[in-house]
Amino acid sequence: MTKKSGTVTQSRKLEHVNIVLNKQTQYKEKTTMLEYVQVIESGEKVSYKDVNLETELIGKRINAPVFVSGMTGGHSDVFDINKNIALAISKLGIPMGVGSQRAMIEDKSVTYTYDVKKFANDIILIGNIGITSLHNYSNGEIQNMLDAIDADMLAVHTNPAQESVQPEGSTDFRGLYERVIELAKGIKQPVVLKEVGNGISKEVAEKFDGKVYAIDVQGAGGTTWVGVETYRSKGEEGLAFWEWGIPTALSILETKSSFKGKVFASGGIRSPEDCINSLALGADICGMAKPVLVSVCKEGSEGLYLMLSNFIDEIKKKMAKLGFRNVNELKNARVLIKEPLSKIIKQRGIIVPSRFVLE
Fold first, then answer.
1. Which domain holds residue 113?
2. What is the structure's pLDDT at 6?
3. Total domains in the fold of the chain
4. Residue 42: which CATH number?
5. Over the stretch 230-244, which tens digit does the pLDDT of each residue have?
6. What 3 state SS string does the chain have?
7. Is residue 17 part of a domain?
8. Domain-embedded: residue 1
């Protein structure tokens, strides 16, 4: 890669952060549809002190079913964001991801902006690469990229909508699902297929059943990266697709119906209720990005720690009120799914567990 291509990638990283912080980049009308999910109380009387949120990821214990989605890296100005996130989540015992590591492949001098384990060596760290970058890099280069920051997992983000609007985007996705499966066999770290705010369908999820460790649905309803790239392009190319995507709640159900691996719920997760509803739908863990970015940029590591600590504490309180002692009990709760979500489930022919009641 040329120095110029590395500089363009690094500049884009900083632009992304500034746009998300300072522009309206949320879906305007479409929601996550998690508001149409109601967890039915178990009927058990549970004390707050009896609620245990511990769960498992890649064979390791984590203290809560919450993680920080990968957002950034690759520019000196965003180094403190990743560092402060790592310091905060290390105290909480939850995982974090970094943004696309393409920038550090192009220019190794920015590796330090992703290398947060030097500050928090006990965390589960999720590396990141864009699916279209797999056209250009071998398994060995990806392995070296992950090893350079001691990553425990790899998220491969698939983002056709974003790439179609991005000024320098790549729209050649031919053969890339097969390439992800090949990569998953060829590197040490478990692979997560990840969307970036447009959701995963059951048809896509089925292609990866038994092939990757997890799918991060990252559905519609939160930040739209079509919107972010529309601001960058200074045009109107992305306006027609601003609302395009599968809402997070629907994407969880679509994915669970055809994929037996771990399912990560992200995309518009803004409240403890969102996380509880996602887990009850069958997700294994919930990821947040924008609320974390806003908090860490305004209040640093300590402020982020308090925000996430309160978020996790509220999950425990609400689970106690619902009568669930642990994540497994919640994942087996009875759930009422209201219209219009219930209607779409029927239209799509999605098979849901018998514990679900469709309005």
1. 29-358
2. 52
3. 1
4. 3.20.20.70
5. 999 887 878 988 999
6. CCHHHHHHHHHHHHHHHHHHHHCCCECCCCCCCHHHEEECCCCCCCCHHHCECCEEECCEEECCCEEECCCCCCCHHHHHHHHHHHHHHHHHCCCEECCCCHHHHHCHHHHHHCCHHHCCCCCCEEEEEEHHHHHCCCHHHHHHHHHCCCCCEEEEECCHHHHHHCCCCCCCCCCHHHHHHHHHHHCCCCEEEECCCCCCCHHHHHHCCCCCCEEECCCECCECHHHHHHHHHCCCCCHHHCCCCCEHHHHHHHHHHHCCCEEEECCCCCCHHHHHHHHHHCCCEEEECHHHHHHHHHHHHHHHHHHHHHHHHHHHHHHHHHCCCEHHHHCCCCEEECCCHHHHHHHHCCCCCCCEEEC
7. no
8. no
